[in-house]
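Obj: model holo form, ligand = D-galactaro-1,5-lactone.
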Amino acid sequence: MKRLLITGAAGGLGTVMRQRLTHLADTLRLSDISPLGDAAVNEELINCDLGDKLAVENLVAGCDGIVHLGGISLEDKWSNIQAVNIDGVFNLYEAARKHGQPRIIFASSNHVIGYHRQTDQLDADSAFRPDSLYGVSKVFGEAMATMYHDKFGQETARVRIGSCFPEPVNHRMLSTWISYDDFVLLIERIFMVPHLGCPIIYGASANTASWWDNSAVSYLGWQPADNAEVFRAQIDEKEKRPAMDAPDVLFQGGMFTAETIHEE
Ligand code: NAI
Ligand code: 15L
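Output (holo structure tokens):
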């Protein structure tokens, strides 16, 4: 494609994807509210608050694909979440509608289903059980994506990312981890398939301890190659196993289920 927009490009995942997605487009348009450093030759840097509707329209204009990583990525007070993960998502979808409907990857989260037990096996039809205001905002984002798909044909991959970090660091992540390599492979497939639709995809590597079934999206041809299991011995050594009734052991969303509501 000619121009790929990555929002949240100054964040943890965005910084990695900035390096790893250069082959997908002639130009990467990188955006964040935080500083983005210096532009490489194939990069356009645009500081933009996702809550600013007009700025988001200008941001999306001329883009052929969007990896939407920008937003509040942890539990927070509602006003912060609302400004970015609610209003910001609406701004993004309106901008896409007005500018050629570029395919969108929406960075949803495992926290939309965080109150499911770790003994449950889930698939794309499993019920929402958000574990936080943050999780609720990602449910909203997924719903926004389906509405724009049903009404206008806007295609979105709703990727419920597990834990995308260099390596799993606790026992829960033996189930939720997705390697950077597997995330890149997924993004490649999402932009390559001729017909995407608006699927739910569990963003996890091929973990032996997985709780999630991606068979509904086999048409993507995504075959994650990594498996958190290779880190089990190292995690056993480093992390004392939490008590059997600890949130990190009971619920898929782990410690997010133990978060209280953040007061304004
Ligand atoms: P992060 O917090 O490191 O990055 C988010 C970026 O969004 C930050 O650079 C921040 O400055 C930017 N941002 C915040 N408010 C903004 C605003 N008003 N306007 C424009 N930009 C704004 O999060 P991370 O880990 O890189 O995650 C990226 C996305 O993936 C997030 O949407 C997160 O919810 C989602 N996700 C990440 C997971 C992971 O394991 N890293 C797991 C599940 C979901
Ligand atoms: C998320 O949604 C967060 O953005 C990320 O920082 C991790 O906490 C991840 O979930 C997780 O559940 O490990």
